[in-house]
Amino acid sequence: MLQIKNLHVSVENKKILQGVDLVVKSQELHVIMGPNGSGKSTLAYTLAGHPKYMVTEGLVRLGRKDILSMSPDQRSQAGLFLAFQYPVEIPGVSVQNMLRVAYENRFGKVKSVLEFRKKLQKLAEKLKVKAELLERGLNEGFSGGEKKRVEILQMAVMRPSFAVLDETDSGLDVDAIKAVAEGMNAIRKESKTGMIVITHYQRILKYLQPDAVHVMSKGKIVASGGGQLAEELEAHGYAQYV
Fold first, then answer.
1. What pLDDT is recorded for position 199?
2. What is the dihedral of CA 85, 89, 93, 94, to 10 degrees?
3. All domains of the chain in start order, with CATH
């Protein structure tokens, strides 16, 4: 399981997270919603190990491992994955080469580069990622939907134990949201990946069936429930929690 206990985080001496508690088990999907500035993205980047975010109290365990003592690459190798709200472009580094190197760092050197690429092409087809994107620079000139689908492909290749998806549905049309959600569901089923999905909207949840929905406000989780809670937030907003 991924266990977050009494997590306090500051950014440039400003307190953002003020005692977050959360437990996500294997294959579970937890949704975190909340107003802007409530600490949702701070939680995501803290879990990934961004140096800007200073943990002042609390613990985070991935299984029995204390990931707060690890560097970002060590956290990735331990099985943690972060999908960005705004995926970064890396010109000159093709998607397929980046994924092969990332795969080898996590699982060991591939026996055949050609076989790896064939498997990657099949997986891309399954996740509705255009084959031509695999040969292009990572996210270079990609549309918003293409960037998000390629991130889901990255997650499928890396088979993380736990994934944090920061507003993956942001800026996507209905078809792209459905495709991304289908990919997430497939990864949960096949790799038993636990997921934390950060979102403002209920629309992607129509395709995900979360195990729990949490409301974050002022750096804490202030309410938890099922899918109905997300519907209430969509209808009435966060006023009662702010």
1. 86
2. 70
3. 2-87+160-241 (3.40.50.300)
